[in-house]
Amino acid sequence: MPALLETHQLCQHYGRVRALDDITLSLPPGGITGLVGKNGAGKTTLLALIAGALKPDGGLIRVLGQSPACTMLSGRIGSLLQEAHFKPGVAVSKQLVQFARLQGNSKQAAEQAVSRLLVQIGGANEAHKRPEAMSYGQRKRLGIAQAFLGSPALIILDEPTAGLDPVIADEIRQFIRHNAEAGSIIISSHNLYEIEDLCHRVLVLEAGRLITNTTIAELRQMNAVLHFTTAPALSEAIINEITSLGGVIGVRRDGQNPAKIACDYHESDNDQLPLSIQQCIIKHGVGILSMHQGNPITAEVLGL
Ligand code: ATP
């Protein structure tokens, strides 16, 4: 089976701006891959190259063993790159059916596929509207639906939940998760909780260069974090004692509330460590008001 995505010394320039610089990577098929990086890091450019919307000006890119512009990939890649593009003046549901028909479906099969998808993604009540009569979020949701039409082998979504209200964003995440088994998905996002929640792999771009290509499981193994709120706030002496426990990477105090601390530790070193940390606090007569496991995928961990 060919790799989902293979690039070798991939470069892309816009005039004198080097948007992507010497990207070499290989992704196996399956699962959801997250693409993260600061504004201008090159995420949209990389997604556009994978979708075949841009032609690289240096290096090599193969998607499912083919050049992205190759006709053999037509219908095998679904994408939503930034904005959803629907023709003005025509109901979006109609455009989705037309799109499904272009994929070789009969009218009835196309209508059935679209209404199934609309029910799943939660846009059935708006789809009869013309795109210009929709809000940004409504259009975006239907743009995501379009990317999934025909069950493509690879779906590319550029910031699928950016600009959506929290309820719709959550519905979109559930939809993506629910549909992840049918193919492979690559999403870009600035929301690290979303990346941790949805993705099994993460790619990190920094100023056009790939600085990380790893699995979330590997990141979790290396980094775990416990958040505590204590009463009273921990003294420096107790913090030093926790820091000296084997496996603890460091203890951070919340800048606004000194009673809140975050303790980073290596999860693989010692599964009893959370208990040892609690014991260390309690034996000094300090109460633990709350404790929860935090998101280990921080900007710091990803090198952002
Ligand atoms: P963001 O998180 O802000 O969406 P991004 O990681 O998606 O950013 P890109 O949109 O790929 O980044 O942009 C990468 C670099 O290429 C930036 O420096 C940007 O200014 C530049 N760039 C992107 N598109 C063009 C264009 N059409 N013309 C000129 N420069 C461009």
Pick out its properties.
13 strands; 304 residues; alpha/beta; four-stranded antiparallel beta sheet; globular; six-stranded mixed beta sheet; binds adenosine-5'-triphosphate; 29% strand; 9 helices
Q: Measured on Cα atoms, how large is the radius of gyration?
A: 23 Å
Q: In which order are the strands of the major sheet placed?
A: 5-6-7-3-8-9
Unreliable spans: none
Structural class designation: alpha/beta
- What is the ordering of alpha helices and beta strands? EEEHEEHHHEHEHEEHEHEEHE
Mean pLDDT: 91
Number of E strands: 13
**Number of H- or I-type helical stretches:** 9
Q: Write out the distinct hetero groups bound to the structure.
A: adenosine-5'-triphosphate
Query: What's the N-to-C terminus distance?
Result: 33 Å
The best one-word shape is globular
Helix content: 25-40%
* Main beta-sheet strand count, sense and barrel state: 6 strands, mixed
Percentage of residues in strands: 25-35%
Oligomeric category: single chain
